[in-house]
Amino acid sequence: MSADTHAHGDHEEQHIHPEPTSFLRKYVFSLDHKVIAKQFIWLGLMFLLVGGTMAIMIRWQLANPGKPFPIIGHLIFVNSDGVVSPAAYTSLFTMHGTIMIFFAITPIMIGGFGNFCIPLGIGARDMVFPTLNMMSFWTMFLSSCVLIASFFVPIGAAAAGWTTYATLSTTMGTPGLGQTLWVVAIFLAGASTIMGAVNYITTVIRLRAPGMGYFKMPLTVWGLWLTAILNALFVPVLGSAAILLFLDRVFHTHFFLAGTMVKGGGDPLLFQHLFWIFGHPEVYILILPAWGVVSDLVSFFSRKPAYAYKVTALGMCAVCVLSAVVYGHHMFTTTMSPMLGQSFMVLTMIISVPAEIFFLNWMHTLWQGRIRLTAPMLFTIGVFFVFGLGGLTGLYLGTISTDLYLHDTYFVVGHFHLTMAAAVFLGSFASIYFWFPKMFGRDMNWTLAKLHFWFSFLPITFIFCGMLIVGNAGMQRRLYNPNEYELFKHLHPLNVWISRAAYVLFFGSIFFIYNFIASILWGKKAEQNPWQVTTLEWTHATSPPVHHNYDVIPTVLHGPHEFNNPAVTDKDWLGQAEPLPSNAGAEAAKKPAG
Amino acid sequence: MMTDVVRFPPPSRPKKDATAYVGMVIFLGGWAMMFAGLFFAYGAVRLKAATWPPDGELALPHALPFLNTFILLASSAALVLGLRAVRQAQPRALTRWLSTAIVLGAAFFALQVIVWRRMWLDGLRPDSGIYGSVFYALTAFHALHVLVGLVGLTTLLPRALRAEFSVARHTAVRMWAMFWHFVDAVWLVMFVTVYVL
Prior knowledge:
The structure holds 2 protein chains of 2 kinds.
Chain A: H1 4-7, H2 23-28, H3 33-63, H4 73-76, H5 86-122, H6 130-149, H7 177-206, H8 219-250, H9 268-302, H10 309-323, H11 338-366, H12 375-398, H13 400-406, H14 410-440, H15 446-472, H16 492-522, H17 536-539, H18 584-590
Helix pairs in contact in A: 3-5, 3-6, 3-16, 5-7, 5-8, 5-14, 6-7, 7-8, 8-9, 8-10, 9-10, 9-12, 9-14, 10-11, 11-12, 12-14, 12-15, 14-15, 15-16
Chain B: H1 15-48, H2 63-87, H3 91-121, H4 130-161, H5 171-196
Helix pairs in contact in B: 1-5, 2-3, 2-5, 3-4, 4-5
């Protein structure tokens, strides 16, 4: 059967549109998935800087309670002589979490690399609904504006924690417009995410290149696709919680109010249920793109096919299914029935099984590989390390008996930062360094990139392992000044060191910022396939890809990790759409296996 | 490694239409989760409540919402017939059924406003207790979808009058019909749980 018969199969609708010429259409209201990806990444990086600055302010307060924040402190904390006041501190950790999750990770990994990698990785010319794609970005932009505006209203920004538990988040706990604007911003960000999710899911279903079966897709695309599915299903649940909270705040409904003064009565715990029905899938939403990316990169830079590719893909599917039924482990301390608690505990333990399986697949891919320690590979190995630590510490929190002690301590903060902050942070930079040459058509300075790795990986591990220790010693999260408590005073030196590591991490990002901007402006022109890898965007698209990605849509012949095929003699890899050398089949048959 | 043979089914409908259909199914499936969240909240409130309606609250009327259910179902049926008409190359019939659906949808909305007004005058307010909160929040959020659907269907009307839709090209009609059926299905759940039970 020749490939030509397929070539027309599903692709009549993918016309080549002429490249837009007006400035607005080209750079602002662009319909091109590659431009929208860059818009998302710029937005996300800006917010990463803002969220990072907030983290530094939080750490400053914990290391030097009551001392004015250096240099910019007097500009920001005007009414308290540059000192982070208790109210400001509460806003800081609330907005740090919100910004990092919804406005940094989501735009970079899902909005940015979801947009960039899905059409290129499956051999499509663009997303299936380009206008929706553009609206998704501008809805996110609007949401960002609302969020930024919330800093400048009377009484200040939201201050109920990123989890915004009722009744803390109702007008009783946090009066003022800031918290209401927070709810609006989250609803808009959710709407943007749903638009993206509909687009990504449909694109993968409808626009795969001829021959690109589901089990021939790069694992990056698998991760992003599953992310989109979870987004489409569970972000709307956050939407419903946001609607009810908005109604409670603005129209004084009683969904989250209880007590003798309230007729019939709502239920504050209801918010926690709705929040975590969304919230637990959300943590997988945040890590899945990184899982997908590192699954591919570990194969690319070990120069070996990904070990048990299908098992990794199916393992990620299993995690997605299970992620919907474990949310109760966030609520063990809310007088949940012990029977229900135990069910959630067992399910939580079960979800670690598929995760362990593909973790072992990664290790097995590394095993006896010809490892190339490029910058993206360093970040990939960093992801394995911090994610492994984060996963193992999760077991203590998923077990009721230990969780009762560790709940709401810095152990929780350390755990979830290792998984969804450190692992996603390192995974984001693995992606940025890996796809930068394709995205911008320029080479980066790889020495600076490797320096950036060491200045990220070492402090980030130290910070969050340190938090595990202070948490295990009992220090609660969100504490304004632990030194006020006799039992936490001895932890102060460790807190100081955690903060110092945080400063190193923060200033280490200067390596990245300089490298990123300088490479865009003055970097050497990148080759088409500098990493010598197999997926379509590297083998069949120029760097950067032309407006319509592929002049001719390639016909896919192989899986995404075609390394060391004995039939290929001149190189150790073979592109997904590259035919084997002629007569190779016969030669391969002659060669002994292995 | 040899090429795996991948089969593509022959296109039965225009490709764009099928793609839009997949996208709409995914969107509505996701959006349904938002209503599921709201119904979950309502269910949790009901489980906690000793009596429903809570003591001292007026019960909601049944007759008008019951009538409204039929009106909305009829409106959906009109769209089914309209879609069938456009597929059988009868653009005139499409215009007729589309107008019928819009009029019925508007009637639904008007009756809903009457129900709200009556309850409001009887003293039920969103802030007077959880009973009022549930009633106004759920029905208003649904009514918002009815309005969006009405606007969408109304934008189709001039296009239908200009006979823009054909057997091969009527994706917009199909998509708005799907949305309308979704709004209808949500209403059925809402009628049973909010008004009847």
